[in-house]
Amino acid sequence: MKISNSISLIYNERHAKYASLKKEVDNAFNIIKHNRWHYESRLKELVTFALKAETGRFSKISELEDFLGCCLVVENSTTLSIAEKLIYAHFNIIERRPRTKNFTHKDPSSFIFDDIRLYAKLKKEDYLPDREFDDCIFEIQLKTFLQHAWAIATHDLVYKGDCYNWANNRIAYQVKASLEHAELSIFSAQEMAKRIDISDNPEYKKINKILKIIGKHWNHDSLPKDTVRLAKNIFNILQVANISLDELRQVCESSDLIGSQPLLSLSPYQAICISCMIYHTEKMHNIADKKIFLSTEALEHIPIDIYEIFKEKILTPQ
């Protein structure tokens, strides 16, 4: 596509300045964003810049607010407000679109692009010298992973090609409607769960009881973030050994490795396994081909006579 020299000149003048701005913004986001979030940024390409200028919607194409565009992607809609507060704390926000989270220009039947966009400038400390990009505005799009996935998966379907295809657009926005419904379901999952008739399941019930037992003996800092997986591991060993929850409670109360002050050099799973080996030796020995994973350090806490019984069933790090 032929780009006029006057447009190219403006673009090239802006590009170097915004490239420097991009480095600053990228560094800021990589510091403040949570590990599970995704961040990406881009400088507008010359052809895209020219096409946007030709829309005639901008009195000064040298001041396009999205010459630098950033995108922060978070887990789901429940996290959007957390991310937005973080952005407001670290950047000067000039404008938000939509203006508030309770406002939209869209009709109920419309599923066009309406993600959160924040137009921002870098914050500047008074004692620092002026920088060439201090007054440059850039765009921050805030999306969930489902919104981001839709944008990537359907971009070429909607925006690329030699034909403006009604059917392609229809399909793309049908998918967007489905994903928006999924977002709403995630957002209101806890309330929806209360309305599901099936509220009980034997395995889930036992795992929740195990979680309570764990919580009684180990404080929050001594437990992994994924306590459900820990409880499932304990549940599995109890199932094959046919050890009841009441027996587990008694073991946790009686064991020198657990009690009111658990030995913190052992994980809760290892402490429970060793304690069950001591207090329910026969049941634990009858677990057929099931192996009991224990760290090398954990072996020091097994009495010699108990270790001799279980040494063929213990799996150690290799």
Automatic annotation (TrEMBL):
Residue span(s) of domain RelA/SpoT: 41-165
Question: In its UniProt entry, what is this protein called?
Answer: RelA/SpoT domain-containing protein
Name the InterPro entries for this protein.
NT_sf, RelA_SpoT
Q: Which Gene3D superfamilies match?
A: Beta Polymerase, domain 2
